[in-house]
Amino acid sequence: MSTIETAKRVSKYIETWQDRCYSSGIPEEVPSELAARGLAPSYKAIAIALLKNDMHLRVLGFSSRKSDWYGVLKREELKKETLVQLRLF
């Protein structure tokens, strides 16, 4: 995932929470009980996700995009009589 896509997801996360009930902006941090359940947004949650190298921001509720090549490789794998790992390199 590119840096631009990650930045767009962060912007979308902030905008979504501001539209819901944080019109004055999301807080820097929230109580740990709320943060653990994802009930309140915070810039700390964004920072922790990025520090953990979660560029898809799964811990913030986003899902990762399926690769375009996954279907192609899976069809090739299923064509073979015995299942073997494809040699890509």
Explain this structure.
With 89 residues, the protein is mostly helical. The chain has one domain (3-79). 51% of the residues lie in helices and 0% in strands. The chain contains four helices and no strands. The chain has helices at 3-20, 32-37, 43-51, 68-79. It is elongated and about 60 Å long. The chain starts with a helix and ends in a 10-residue tail after the last helix. The relative contact order is 0.12. The mean pLDDT is 86.
Please provide the ordered H/E string of secondary-structure elements: HHHH
Unreliable segments (pLDDT under 50, ≥5 consecutive)? none
Give helix % range. Answer: 40-55%
Shape: elongated
Count of β-strands? 0
Task: Average the pLDDT over all residues and give the rounded result.
Answer: 86
Strand content: under 5%
| Rg over CA atoms | 19 Å
Tally the structural domains: 1
CA-to-CA gap between the ends?
22 Å
User: Number of helical runs?
Assistant: 4
> Structural class per helix/strand content?
mainly alpha
Assembly type? single chain
The major sheet is characterized as: none
Outline:
The chain is built from four helices and no strands. It has 89 residues and is mostly helical. The longest helix is centred in the N-terminal third of the chain and has 18 residues, at 3-20.
Task: For this entry, give a set of tags.
mainly alpha; 89 residues
Topology:
Elements: H1 3-20, H2 32-37, H3 43-51, H4 68-79
